[in-house]
Amino acid sequence: MTEPRERLYLFDTTLRDGAQTTGVDFTLDDKLKIAALLDDLGLDFVEGGYPGANPTDTALFGTKRRLKATFTAFGMTKRAGRSAANDPGVAALLEAEADAICFVAKAWDYHVHVALGCTLEENLEGIADSVKAAKARGREVLVDCEHFFDGFKANRDFALACARTAFESGARWVVLCDTNGGTLPEEVEAIVREVTAVVPGGNLGIHAHNDTEQAVANSLAAVRAGCRQIQGTLNGLGERCGNANLTSLIPTLLLKPAYAERFAIGVTAEKLTQLTKISRQLDELINRPPNRHAPYVGAAAFATKAGIHASAVLKEPETYEHVPPETVGNRRHVLVSEQAGKSNVLAELERVGLTVSKDDPRVARILDEVKERESLGYAYEGADASFFLLAKRVMGEVPAFFAVERFKVNVERRYNAAGDLVTFSEATVKVKVGDEVLISAAEGNGPVNALDAALRKDLGRYQRFIEDLELVDFRVRILNGGTGAVTRVLIESRDGAGDTWTTVGVSANIIDASFQALTDSITYKLVKEGVGV
């Protein structure tokens, strides 16, 4: 008979600790959208922020939020020299519309003396009184023992006293924090085992930072030693190097037998298939490109480049995939590059919807064309749409929708009517569509923007098919040094259906490279829509 699995609880602090990420500033609307994503995924706790610390978090906790997850407010324990009832910070937490309160308490004697300027006894009193005050108001209570592992190494008895005081005062969860992120997994495991002699493992949590790239490993080490709550953030957001990445931890807990057979979590296998989408939705909200090399959810997480590897993956995916990509909502990529063989080309042709026999001579021609163009600086690993068009052109299946006869871009720096120095760009494009010659001009905030606007301003009979087309990302890479360097431009486009695709252009002239990518993007859209000449 199989023993029942232990419940492991997941606590998300994306909205609080993740908000400490350099360059990330959540609006109230952002927080509400992210909280909904986390709740739908199946997280047990969603920590919304620090009521009273800033207007956004105060507004967030000003209204009851209808979440299945335990909505949690964060703040400090009471200050020394006053009661919990007379501490404004504690009062803000008690008044917050939250299901639980997470108090942060110093657990390193050095910090108590230097940062708080009080005695160790006063610090313990602050923990006890704060927990009791929140318990009296009917809240679930957590205590984040800040700098616990460094504190344990410096003064074992005091760090343990902080944990014991929190638990004995009524805290449901005592969370051990590796705040500086410098503790190693073997240290975490050993220290947590010692703590379980003071606080039961079913009441212990782990909060790891990633300063040695081991926050995920430290979290798993803590679980092995007895912790039953893991705190972390989506995509590993957080101050400095980030927090434990729940986007990596969740699939590990669900898909790796060492954990899946022993523990149950709130995220189901069905919800796990949405993980890649949720990860990218978060990146979209904070306006940053997704990490292509992120475990499980990155675009390159299941990508194979070398020819012999690709051949093996096509025969048996498990040869180079530790889990099936579809379990986390990702997909397999067999990349086409100068290292590629026919297996890569065939796999990529199939993935982009082109069925070609392995004996078809056009496969070798496509491979030769890819290698020739990559020797010039093109890269198709991240430009699916341009690869699709390259293959279709070799196969003679791309209609001549339009021909650009010439284009011109002017960039002018001048003072405007208000006396401000501004840069002004204007582009003109002459396009031939069938027997019709069209000339369009447009302005933009830069030369590429102006060129994009001019090119898409009037394509005659094809115009209605590109009305919903927009440029959403523009990336430039210099392939060799100097002012005459060869430049590779990648452009990501999106249409009204939400489909996205990437095209590439290469030239010693950045404008020309950009124009190549832009024309490929429009051509791909027309082919995708099934437009005839």
TrEMBL record:
Gene3D superfamilies the UniProt entry points to: 1.10.238.260, 3.30.160.270, Aldolase class I (3.20.20.70)
InterPro entries per the UniProt record, alphabetical: 2-isopropylmalate_synth_dimer, AIPM/Hcit_synth_CS, Aldolase_TIM, Citramal_synthase, LeuA/HCS_post-cat, LeuA_allosteric_dom_sf, PYR_CT
The family this protein is said to belong to: Belongs to the alpha-IPM synthase/homocitrate synthase family.
Name of the featured protein: Citramalate synthase
Pfam families: HCS_D2, HMGL-like, LeuA_dimer
NCBIfam families: citramal_synth
Top-level class of the enzyme under EC nomenclature: transferase
Annotated organism of origin: Phreatobacter cathodiphilus
Keywords for the protein's UniProt record, in alphabetical order: Amino-acid biosynthesis, Branched-chain amino acid biosynthesis, Isoleucine biosynthesis, Transferase
